[in-house]
Write a structure and sequence with these properties.
The structure holds two protein chains of two kinds. Chain A is an alpha+beta fold. Chain A is 21% helix and 30% strand. Chain B has a three-stranded antiparallel β-sheet with strand order 3-4-5, with no helix packed on it. In chain B, strands 1-2 form a two-stranded antiparallel ribbon. The chains are: A alpha+beta, B mainly alpha.
Chain lengths: 155, 388
Amino acid sequence: MSNRFLGNTEMNEPTPQPTRRSFLDWVIGLFSAVTVGAMTIPALAYFWPAAKGGKGGDVEVKEAANLKPGESAIVQLQGKAAIVRRDASGLVAYSAVCTHLGCLVKWDGARKEFLCPCHAAVFDASGRVVSGPAPAPLPAYKVKEVSGKVFVSTT
Amino acid sequence: MALKHSVSGFLADRYDMETATGFLRKQAGKRLPPHTSWLHVFGSLSLLLFISQTITGIMLLIYYRPTPDEAHKSIQYITAEVNYGWLYRQIHAWGATLMILAVVLHMTRTYFFGAYKKPRELTWVSGVLIFIVTITFGFTGYLLPWNQIAFWATTVGTESANKIPIIGEWLRYFIRGGDVVTGETLSRFFVVHVIILPWALTGLIAVHLFLMRATNLATLEPVGEEKPIEPKHGIPFFPVHVCKESIVAVLLLAVLVTLSVLAPWEIGEPADPLVTPEHIKPEWYFLPSYQLLKYFEGPYGAFFGIVACSVPFLLLFLWPFLDRGKHRHPKKRPIAVGIGLVGLIGALVLGYLGHVSETEQTFFGTRYHIDHYGVPHRVADKSRDEGE
């Protein structure tokens, strides 16, 4: 260490002094590290995805306006898939993304369950896990109907 | 002849050609261990497939367009319109699968012949890196046609990253270029597939070949007792082994073209982010991991599943440092050979279960439905029941 930072000093010398050369080595090393760091940080930031997705809030879902009781539709909500269906009490919406590995669930009207086609996860009408490998329920979204238009909120 | 003389004269006037040609002569004349056989051709076969993949890949790049709107259409265009486009697309697709097979066979031979032992541990480690890069080539290239199966297999594959604690969500977001698989993912996979991985693999192959040449091929003698190969016992690399490799290379080209013509890869339906198709399955080389993941359920299931899938790769990296026995001959290494066989058979069984899961199969005249976990359930034969 002493040689690296303080120059070539004799082993028996009591207080080694930095030489001009070792000081310059140290300064060059520091500036090189700063330069490489200054180039690397923006480059790493460049690779980070710029798209942040939607900001949440109410999104109008035109496909859901004409759903009849028992029918369902898979729609895009700010880039994320949701499943909207109309039951006896009105419209309900859940994330359509299976919590297991991200496939889209389908509504099985006869069994009144959401089924995932990839690894056979089953969720009940409220999105709770019934069977299969899903670790968590399907998140529910708020639905509003205002003068014939349907709005779903993902927040 | 005159041209050859004038070219060699031109070079000899300027460069130390004696050293260069002497080096090449020495490499070509090197003696390989006496047990070197047809089992030793899978390494060069892998290299040949990499060269074929590079050439056909560059050819496909001329017409391929990496955007969600155009990717699938450009593949259709290559297949239907471009002269011999169908052939080069098929050779690229089949070449990918055969390259992974060749690398696996090469590793299997190396493992069972104990060739990873001292002093060749780093040759093995560089080989495991080559294996991982080759698989990543398969994973990234699979998405590029932007068809339904590719889109959803990539969704599931990248979702697995989310199950890694702490960094999982960050990692998935980074790999996908967003929350879900989109055109951003396609761009990322495209760049990784056509720029980053080819150069990474070129560098790794250079290191691997350098290390292989520096330590020569392993004999079957125990560690520390390897004797120099005597010329009369050794097998000349040129022409004997090169001849074997050339025969295999010609056969490979025949197999590639035959498979391309008789068993073409389908283009499939264009990707639809709102419809997940039934029973999507990954390529054969991911089937063992795919099936293994299914047995881990519950809130932390996927995490432990990923751990279980990572352990074999970690073991591969560390194996030369864990197995410190001196013997190389398979008959003198019953434990290492046993572990290797269990691993290999385990992967084959899991892969088979993954392949047949959620299908119906007939065994000994009885029809079975194979469930998600690979367990067969007898299917009631309606027609026979009705007949009786």
